[in-house]
Amino acid sequence: MREVLVRRSDVVSIAFVVPLQGPTGIYGPSCLACGQLAVEQLNARNGIAGRQVELVQVDAGRAPDVVAEDVGRLVDTGRVDAVAGWHISAVRVALTRRIGGRVIYAFAAMHEGSDDTPGVFMLGERPVNQLLPATHWIREHRGARRWVVVGNDYVYPRVTGSVAQESLQGTGSEIVQSAYVPLGTSDFQTVLGDVAEANADGVIMLLMGQDAVHFNRQFARQGLSEKLLRLSPAIEENTLLGAGPGANEGVYAAAAYFDGLETVESGEFAQQYYTRFGRYAPALNAVGESCYEAIRFLARLGEVSGSIAMSAALPTGHFYDSPRGLMRLDGNLVDQDVYLAAADGLEFKIQEQIA
């Protein structure tokens, strides 16, 4: 007998796709807390387009095709109205193959630059306003010109590394070597040996989660922190905590949000977060905050369009407020302020707004 799905019509259900295991599982608690905060705040007001909001958790830390099939079944049965969350771009590619063009999909993570799948909104930072201005700043202020790229071997690091290599030509900076390793790598001795011999000034790290933790610990143990800078669009406060203060010297990160960002919007968000979850809350960081962004984006879409169905739309050039400041929609991408920060023990210190 075929199961008949009955779901309340006054509830908006969102497949909340965030990693709870594997190398990126380190981000999971921050994602869950920020998602919960977004839903509680929305439900205390008008929800999304007048309907209460619920999140249906999907573990994005598994193989991309497994994640995509789970989300696909939720969409097939009408269990969810939309998809949102932070996950690696390999999961995004699998999801768009499975559900593309059927529901609105608010992809929260930094990304390689574009995805034209109908209904997909790419809300994170991209190389042109994140990694590239960061390399320019470090060249001007720290003198680093020659870079080695070390990244995980999937679409985001590969494409971002390629974009950086091409875009840095003629700028006074260059990529002199690249290495890509499987997600889940814990032994970086061979890679670090090559890095040490590359005659470089720094490493562009395109490593995710626990892989970045292992890399930073081994990097520091080999004494490379005293010789080479590290720059990453993916390192956040959980990564600093995981590696420990002794492994974070010379680490720079570029992102649209950091805990401690001194803007009115980010200050209000941090106060709300710590009031709700207390001093021992999961780390507040760009990854978790991006999940909050994704859910609030769906709410904005519902507010303007009256629903979050595939027919809903926001015009190019549409502005809206967020903890990151003023956001501007550019097609299905978002223009936003981006900052460069330097690691200081287990915290980040903002150096400058770079985009």
Automatic annotation (TrEMBL):
Residues 12-344 form the Leucine-binding protein domain. It holds the Pfam family Peripla_BP_6. SUPFAM superfamilies: Periplasmic binding protein-like I (SSF53822). It comes from the Bacteria. Keywords: Signal. Belongs to the leucine-binding protein family. This is ABC-type branched-subunit amino acid transport system substrate-binding protein. The lineage of its organism: Bacteria, Bacillati, Actinomycetota, Actinomycetes, Propionibacteriales.
